[in-house]
Structures are given as C-alpha cells and as structure tokens.
Specification:
One of its GO terms (molecular function) is mevalonate kinase activity. Helices cover about 40% and strands about 20% of the residues. It is α+β, with helices and mostly antiparallel strands. Strand 6 (about 200) and strand 7 (about 205-210) form a beta hairpin. Bound molecules: adenosine-5'-triphosphate, (R)-mevalonate (MEV) and magnesium ion.
Length: about 400
C-alpha cells in the first residue's frame, strides 16, 4: 500500500432536529465543506510502533505493537460495539485517564484500528482540522469519517474512486467511531460528513436534499461535551418521559415541515425562520441552550437580521443564524462586529453543502505537493488555519479526493 495517504471529511451544521435525532426523529444537517478534518497516514520512524499526532488537541503518543498482544482477534461488526474489544483496549488508554478529549480520541482510534487493520505496524496517524474541536460543528464525526476512510483503504476494503457501497461501509464504521466518542449518537453527523451535501436523516435512512441558504455560524468558544449533553437529555427523558417525548416528536415535525418548505420554496426565509425559533425554544425546554446562545439570539432580534438557533448538541458551542432575504449588510456587519469585539466569538460566513469524504494517495510523483502536504502535519511549525485552507482544502473535491 503506497503511503502517505490523505483523507478528509467536512464538519456540519444541524438545521433542524438535534437531540430529537437520537430518539429516531427526523433531522436535517448540511456539510460545511470549507471546515474540515484532515488525516495523513505515513510510515512511522519505527516499524514496531503505532503513532498518533493529533495536533489540534495536543495529543502525541505512540504504542509499541508488542503491547497489543492482549488484544483479542474479533469478528469486526458495524452493528454494535464489541464489549470484549473495548475492555481489552482499556489498559492501552491508561495515560489518557485525566484528559477526556485525549481519552475519547485514543479510544475511538484504537477501536477502529483493531477492528480494521489489527496486524499493520509502523504507521503514523497525523490529524489537523480547521473545525473548532468540540464546538457543535461535527468535529468528532469528521475525524471518525477520516479515520474510517483511511483504515478501510489500508485494509483494502475500499478503493478509489469510492462507490455507493464503499461510502456506506465508511459511514457504518464512522458511526461505530461516533459510538466510541459519545455513546449514543443518531448517525446524522457521520452521515453528512461521509456524503457531504445536505441530508435528511429519518430513522437510519437518509436522503440528500439540496439546500442553499444564507447562514452565519457563530462559535462561542464555550467548551461542552456532546456526550454529556446527550446523556443529560436521556436523564430528563427517563424522568419525564411523556412530556420530553412529545417535545422531541414536535422537533421531528418541525424538521419534516422545514423539508417541505425547503423543497417547495426555499426563498420563504421568514417561514423557515419561524420554524428555527420554535425549534430553539423546544431545545431550551430540554435544557441544552446556554446564556451566551440566548445573548446571540437577543442580538439577532435587536438588529432584526434573521433567525438564530443553537446547532449541534448545544450547551455553548455554535449557533446558526439564517439571514433575512432583504437584510441590510450594514446591520449584519454591526452584529458580527459586536459578537467578535464584545464577546470574542468567532463568526464564519460559509456555504452549506459541498464534498464529503475521500482518499488521496500522495504518489510521490508530485514531490513539491507532497512536501507541502506533509508540512501541514509538522509538529514543530504548526501550520495555521489559512495554510491548511490554502494547501489541503483545494485537494478536497470530487476530482482529486474521491
Ligand atoms: N481535530 C481533532 N483531533 C483530535 N480529536 C478530535 C478532533 N476533533 C474532535 N476530536 C475528538 O472529538 C471530541 C469532540 O467531540 P464532540 O462530539 O463532543 O464535539 P463536536 O463533534 O464538535 O460537537 P457535535 O457532536 O455537537 O457536533 C474531542 O473530545 C476529541 O476526542
Ligand atoms: C445532539 C445530536 O443530536 C447532534 C450532535 O451534533 C447528537 C446526535 O444526533 O448524535
Ligand atoms: Mg460530535
């Protein structure tokens, strides 16, 4: 297998249906193709180690392959997590117990590694992302899809160009990765990271829908954990089942109504905006909003520029703002300026949709490109987001990365 290989997958926004999706309700998500995770798999310096350079979370670690002798040979399955494998991985995670980000990432990596290429050695897995980590933009799913694509390619279970069956295999294994990440995912994040575009997920089947909406993304930089937020809703669901299941079902109805609107007349921004407001209020009622999310909503209404809701698991992280059709650009700029200057939030203006996952074999034919790509994963001189966008993003389209 020629190395290095580069894989990549986009982040996402959930337009409607977060949290309800975990209970089988429909949800709509769109890829944010310009915000991506990149994974470079190359030869490690030592043929008997497996090395991680997950530079965005400052996780650099290597395992001696001799330490893998206690890992059982399992029948890999994408149906559910294998508890025997999970238990046998635990001793390899002892150095990450005090850091949940590291523990989640290393557990997910090892689970997918031992499921797909348990006997390969001497590999280095380097990750860089232009997605804010843990922000609600699907960073965990994008790394799961990038890993699943690379490991399936190394296992020779997929080949480029990727066909429908192979994308499904990638998505199925990425869903297993998301289960390692936060226990009880719906699958919407990994599905949109795999296929790109915008998707409606409805009880485990998905359809691609075309969405082109003027959206602002605001990142509050307030850290939160999807695993914890999903677990909190589960607790509320168990304690107040009748009420919470009605709330989640109402969110599902909003998703379906928004789909009809998007297909009928996506220019009816105000009707979509009303659904965004109702969805946000229902999310507040299951306690996944945050005072800073409410602040952004207040400012949205004060400047009358559009409609804002949290996106992803909430609890901080990100909001999305659907801009009104005839909005005055000066009002939008004033809104953005206050968010950046007074609250130190990041604001992204980006298109929705775009490309999902793919593989690029750096075949050493183009040494200049190969060297520029490898520089993006150097520990010493950490490449900036702009450099990643300049060098790696152009490689992530259907003609190059596929
Ligand atoms: N660039 C990255 N490098 C290494 N690990 C990452 C990276 N991005 C995400 N992760 C892993 O994913 C975890 C964050 O996942 P989490 O689901 O909480 O946030 P998110 O996916 O950004 O939000 P949401 O699921 O609401 O969209 C981190 O703890 C880390 O383990
Ligand atoms: C909160 C949630 O609905 C979306 C997280 O981006 C969890 C999930 O669907 O897996
Ligand atoms: Mg996640």
């Amino acid at each position: 297998m020629p190395l290095p290989i580069l894989t990549s997958a986009p982040g996402k926004v959930i337009l409607f249906g977060e949290h309800a999706a975990v209970y089988g309700e429909p949800a709509i998500a769109a890829a944010v193709s310009s915000l991506r995770t990149y994974l470079l798999v190359s030869n490690a310096n030592d043929p008997n180690i497996i090395q991680l350079d997950f530079l965005d979370i400052k996780l650099t670690h290597q395992w001696e392959c001799n330490d893998f002798s206690t890992i059982p040979t399992i029948q890999p399955s994408t149906k559910e997590l294998d508890s025997t494998l999970l238990k046998s991985i635990d001793p390899l995670l002892s150095s990450f117990k005090s850091n949940p980000l590291h523990h989640q990432a290393a557990l997910t990596f090892l689970y997918l590694f031992f499921s797909l290429i348990p006997n390969l050695k001497g590999l280095k897995f380097s990750v860089r992302s232009t997605l804010p980590v843990g922000a609600g933009l699907g960073s965990s799913a994008s790394i799961c899809v990038s890993l699943s694509t690379a490991l399936l390619h190394l296992a020779k279970l997929i080949s480029i160009p990727l066909n429908k069956a192979q994308l499904k295999l990638i998505n199925d294994w990425a869903f297993i990765g998301e289960k390692c990440m936060h226990g009880n995912p719906s699958g919407i994040d990994n599905t949109v990271a795999t296929y790109g575009n915008s998707i409606l997920l409805n009880s485990q089947s998905h359809e691609i829908i075309d969405i082109d909406l003027p959206i602002l993304l605001t990142y509050t930089k307030i850290p939160r954990s999807t695993k914890q937020l999903v677990s909190n809703v589960r607790h509320m669901y168990n304690s107040h089942h009748a009420i919470v299941s009605k709330i989640l079902s109402s969110i599902g109805h909003i998703t379906l109504e928004s789909k009809d609107l998007l297909l009928a007349d996506a220019s009816d921004i105000d009707s979509l905006g009303e659904l965004i407001n109702i969805n946000q209020h229902l999310l507040q009622s299951i306690n996944v909003s945050h005072p800073m999310i409410e602040k952004i909503i207040k400012l949205t209404n004060q400047f009358q520029i559009g409609y804002t809701k949290l996106t992803g698991a909430g609890g901080g992280g990100c909001t999305l703002t659907l801009l009104k059709k005839d909005v005055d650009r000066k009002d939008v700029d004033r809104f953005i300026n206050i968010l950046k200057k007074d609250y130190n939030f990041d604001v992204f203006e980006t298109n929705l949709g775009g490309f999902g996952t793919g593989v690029l074999e750096l075949d050493n034919k183009n040494k200049e490109l190969d060297d520029r790509v490898k520089q993006c994963f150097e520990i010493k001189s950490l490449a900036s987001r702009e450099q990643l966008d300049q060098i790696l993003l152009p490689l992530c389209n259907n003609t190059t990365l596929n």
